[in-house]
Amino acid sequence: MPRIPRTARAAAFITILSLPLAAARADEGMWTFDAFPTAKMKADYGFAPDQAWLDRVRASAVRLTGGCSASFVSAIGLILTNHHCVASCLQDLSSDGSDYLKDGYIAHGRNEERLCPGQQAEVVTAIRDVSGAVKAAIGTASGLAAVKARTAAIARTEAAGCPDTATTRCQVVTLYGGGQYKLYTYRKYSDVRIVWAPESRAEQFGGDPDNFNFPRYALDGSFLRAYENGKPVTTPQHLTWAVRAPSDGEATFVVGNPGSTQRSQTGAQLAFAKEVSAPINVAIYSELRGRLIAAMAQSPERFRQGKEELDGVENSLKVYIGRVKAFNDPVFMGRIAAAEADLRAKSAGNAAIGDPWADAATAVAAYRDLYLPTRFIRPQGDLYGYASKLVRASEERAKPNDHRLPGYSDSALPLIEKQVLDDRPITPWVDQLMLEWSLSKAREYLGPDDADAKLMLGKESPEGLAARLVAGTRMGDPAYRKQLWVGGKAAVDASTDPMIVLARRLDLRDRALQALADERYDGPLTAARAKIADARFAAYGDTLYPDATFTLRISYGKVAGWNERGRMVPTRTLMGGIYDRATGAPPFDLPTAFVTNRARIDPRITYDFITTNDIIGGNSGSPVIDRSGAVIGAAFDGNIHSLAGNYGYDGSNNRTVAVSTAALEEALKHIYPAPALLAELHEK
Amino acid sequence: MPRIPRTARAAAFITILSLPLAAARADEGMWTFDAFPTAKMKADYGFAPDQAWLDRVRASAVRLTGGCSASFVSAIGLILTNHHCVASCLQDLSSDGSDYLKDGYIAHGRNEERLCPGQQAEVVTAIRDVSGAVKAAIGTASGLAAVKARTAAIARTEAAGCPDTATTRCQVVTLYGGGQYKLYTYRKYSDVRIVWAPESRAEQFGGDPDNFNFPRYALDGSFLRAYENGKPVTTPQHLTWAVRAPSDGEATFVVGNPGSTQRSQTGAQLAFAKEVSAPINVAIYSELRGRLIAAMAQSPERFRQGKEELDGVENSLKVYIGRVKAFNDPVFMGRIAAAEADLRAKSAGNAAIGDPWADAATAVAAYRDLYLPTRFIRPQGDLYGYASKLVRASEERAKPNDHRLPGYSDSALPLIEKQVLDDRPITPWVDQLMLEWSLSKAREYLGPDDADAKLMLGKESPEGLAARLVAGTRMGDPAYRKQLWVGGKAAVDASTDPMIVLARRLDLRDRALQALADERYDGPLTAARAKIADARFAAYGDTLYPDATFTLRISYGKVAGWNERGRMVPTRTLMGGIYDRATGAPPFDLPTAFVTNRARIDPRITYDFITTNDIIGGNSGSPVIDRSGAVIGAAFDGNIHSLAGNYGYDGSNNRTVAVSTAALEEALKHIYPAPALLAELHEK
Fold it and tell me: Domains in chain B, start-ordered, CATH in brackets?
């Protein structure tokens, strides 16, 4: 889980402005570092970390722009994260002759540490409240005007905060649905290299069947290193590598970047997700899964090429299916409805609040009419993605910074530029499959006679258009992309590349749709939800945490099992257990190195373990930290009950799944030996 | 639509015992021939057919055991049905060298009329009420005992009714959820041959995007002929072939075999479908669709081989997606809930009724625990289907007739034998794909550690097991199937065929699950629903029709458009319209013969048209009959609003889609010329 897969981007398109349901209970909460609930934790656990602890941990926490979390674990830029967070890098570096997903990757010396295309590491250095400035800029504007004023204010604030865009990045984050705006400043490292990764089979033991399940036997850990000017960066602030088994009940912290939650959506928003978007996601991603499975079955090379995309799709799909299940659970939905009813009752008669729930319902009703075109106007695939970014960036860069669309401000452009220009291999058949699938689903849901469907397809079929575009485009060539990036609007406008031609046509419509959505949905909804935030603070005080926004959070909890239909699930698996569970058939076949090194592996070492920490997709790779501030594991999944985590947390059975540092240590010693790395981890 | 595709068999596994919601309104209703609502139709339309009309039409109506409807249209056994009802036959008769789906099929003389494997035509000759005998046999038994008593009584009644199983078939049909049992006697014809079919592209113009939509340009008509002893059968009772455009507003009758509806499910049953089964169906059939699409894309030959399976899957999937949409429509669901509330209010205080809704809820709650194993214990694919039928038949045939499982009584065995023994080509990769998909979904939903999943897979993977079974089985060989059929239980028990070995293992568990379901679900539910039927008759009198059961029904309605978001959809398309709508790209590419014969085709002829008749899957191929009893079209689809037809009918926008006899006539004359057939249709 906790990844934000590439293919799920479209689903995340709706701007997320959220609030938690009510005061957080038990171990619930993805807290910001500037508002750690010290009193609450002390009440729950008898202690809480002090400011020095929090500062040290925050300085060690790394965000990976690919959609994961991580941490520094040595003084020379060594980064611990999940294997599935580097899978895309391993895939990019592989070819038919060398398959680093299959075989793993061990750099023997710095010269073998290889750049991960498109990857960037970021560390928070400051958090500043800029609510006043942003809210003042919005003033009494509404609809599209309010969205534009907010976007402009954010762009100005970010530009002013980070004049040096080569080593810093500024990001204004909207918290509490517009209740707060905070400026996050990051030290960024845009040269990130792969150091160590086990066989994919060691991470994927149990495959999709075991994903989001426990007991689990997955070695989902890897190491990267941040570089600058061709040298490893110095990272005096890093976590201590603790090699010990976690104790049942001990307190644990998970520090990372949960991607997004919608725990404080109004009933109208939830109804929209339940009735409209979730069923579509389940149907279309199921079909994509089937297309990939059958296309990959044609040859081992195709299997290798499609594997990472399929993993991402299956992961997203499981989340969507879990959500649909939650939507169809009257108890779960009743709890959410009751929380909203409680807040509305507490706010009744407060004239300053009014009825923002009705306003939100009106906005959502308007969005229902815009949803299908908005959802399907962006074909999928890396090649189209390049074209789309080049087209939009060329338009936006020609405007003043504070007139641009969100995501194209001066502070955001360097990462887009890196993503567009980095050399990454393209697998044409995967791209063609993604394009064909997304075009065919667009036609299916919009209807063949729909104007937007015709805008995409003209008189061509999805199959014919996808084949023509992939065969004819030069988007796979980084030199050509650079030419268009450097050439700007004139070069992009003059291009006859068929992918660029399509992207130009669709971008116009995309902007028009976005403007409509801003006017009728995003603008009114932000205003409504800012009021709901006020209502919530008035009702529940400051024991609230904001919905997740892929920014740094800290969650506290403990090592604990859960009761599964009358039976307690133990807190951990042991390394020897994998041999009992293996069947010999994929995905329950042993990793090669586990077979050859069996005699050397201590079967009693804790492999994976579970905690009550509250996490979600984006948290993948987050360090699991003990009371002393040392790292004892890397979070890589949630259990099946956590699939509804987008909408709520249930401490009785929602669990984080982590791989232990003890298991990684054993792997570095005996399974995928890396003595220099081991020494580095233990350097004082 | 209106087909019951092979792949949807599993979904139809739950025994359907149903009642309509309340008194039928407007053109709602799938009426039995022995209870035509003469008074109601007279009130609505100012006339109603007399008994002679009904008798003549009934004698002309044909049921095709492949899951379709049809009618005799000449005195020598000529049968009109849909093209998509003969697609499986065309597929079976094709090979790499001759593709009758692609090119169409025209028999030039009787000797070219070729047998459709597995197909059987049946005509109702009598309907007799046997409720007394069946209910007496059940007596006061409950649970499994009640189910067994009912099954035995039905087997005895059928055996007594049709001593000659070579030319007749008897079937006791459960109507009104156990409120009535009726014995249907059929004259059967087990030698059915293909006579005429257009290019598949003519039927499939618009493909899946246009399926369940209108306007429509589909030539979904074909002709078969019933044979006996090597000669065409004599059918003096047949419909007159009327070649004329339908008039707007004229009364129409659709006579055919709607497969199944659940319009009178209790709230608990509906909640189960909404919360549990429908989301699973959407997910797994979407994935199957994707697997087939990608596998077929590998070569034109694979495309040909997989096409019919894919069409069936896409058709079912669209129905499931439509149902999920209906479930998520508060207005639709509110109407159903209100109808149940009304009936419960009307029945309150009636001691003889009690609270059968609570009993039904208890039964459904028990079934929730049995659903997943029941749903997934039967792997898919033709080869496994043969093995499974051979295993079960060998067990059941060894028992006395009235001790057998439903479907294996003496009256049912001849059709099973025909289905198992008829020579049909197998496409191993399609079979392997179906098997792999169904095994992998079984493991996904049951979980890899589940006992039933292990019973299926042992230590193998779905991929490995599917490959081994398909490579090793002899189920594709009709001679070997015959050997096992004739050899009976001893031969089947001794077989080491891997598919038989798996089927033996799973059949045991399947029986055990079925017995549990009979005891806790089917038995109690039947008792509850018989009481609900009593309540409904008491409340609404005899203006009710039973839920569909793939038995002969008649629906009356009229030629009418509907209001689509403020715009009236016209009642028909004209043949010339296809040229305007064609884009040149599949599935909007013109059929070859429409291109070459364009000058000869009269563009003003009515192509497809819509009526308010109430139909559902199974009605495909039903004649659309005018007031005089002449056939003016063949129903082949419903519009998008009719997708919720399983649960309710809405006369304001639910429409039947039919191909006109005028268009078929034009095709027989100028597009796919068949002068002898044309002459036969017009013979007096």
Answer: 6-117+195-262+547-682 (2.40.10.120)
